[in-house]
């Protein structure tokens, strides 16, 4: 059986901790900081006053820099969890390739500056990294083509208070879109309100039987029963079959107001995000978007949600998922 792997690592990135050290030693700025830290004596200002601004930035953070197994890291406090992590001080030669993985790659998802900088911050540090990432995102051709000003009128949003995963999930249909080679032209989107964890499944139709089977076999059998499912008033959700499914599983079923179908802001925002991510990767014929969908949903779930301050994966599973970048450079080290 031949497997088609869409995700490819950039040439030259190998899984070798020793390479991290050698890369730092080859960087003229970081190598000097590494030498200073190994000597355990902070240089005096007259010794560094003639050096570049980057040298001075590292020098000003002397107490936050540490050397572990010969490699330079910076201590960073996660204000959400109060944990202290070690950020690998990334040499200049690797920065473009890291941004390709964490922003441009399918598991990066072109998710914009805020989510990209959060991914960087959980793993890496270098002097001036915020400006570097901001310039990268602004110059990203795929993002600029898609990110046009939006003038859509938003409906009134209602706030739902939830306190744990799978207390309330939303179920929505995205499409119809261009039919794929496999015959799929709709996307079923399931989102957990508490964790913002989401799954998306390509389907050929949105008949009640198709939707019920996908929800039961792909979501419920994997994650368990939600207490409540919220939908719009689509015929597939108001059908006897779907209502019987909820009743049999003792799931409370709610729906949008008929005069305010746009009131579920959570669903609307996620649908726009999915459409944006897909549009930045699919070819012009758009007939293979379903091949990209699993990778892009992983990108969404593994990026920090602005409202939560954590990734949906962490909120749902209590841990972060391992990404290719973590195999290459090693995950964030906790203290």
Automatic annotation (TrEMBL):
Segment forming the signal sequence: 1-20
Q: Which residues form a coiled coil?
A: none
Q: Which InterPro entries does the annotation name?
A: Integrase_cat-core, Integrase_H2C2, Retrovirus_Pol_polyprotein, RNaseH-like_sf, RNaseH_sf
Q: Does the keyword Signal apply?
A: yes
Pfam families the record matches: Integrase_H2C2, rve
Alphabetized UniProt keyword annotations = Signal
Q: Which residues cross the membrane?
A: none
Q: Which GO terms describe its biological process?
A: DNA integration
Protein name, as recorded: Integrase catalytic domain-containing protein
What does the organism's lineage look like at the top? Answer: Eukaryota, Metazoa, Spiralia, Lophotrochozoa, Mollusca
